[in-house]
Structure prediction request, 61 residues.
Amino acid sequence: MADHNHLSHARNLAAEFAAQTDLMRQLVAEAAKVLQLPVPDTFLGRKTQEPFPWEKPRFSD
Prediction:
């Protein structure tokens, strides 16, 4: 009788590929949601408040 182990192995791989495909679709959907969010404000190069007039500047521009 012929050995059919390779057929069951192929079925196991098909199930694994389907699971990986589902995971990739979920990740792509989540990434698409994140990319639709506005760009975060990092405060770099932007003054968030002006110093009080009597304060000496701590950093020279």
Notes: Helices lie at 5-35.
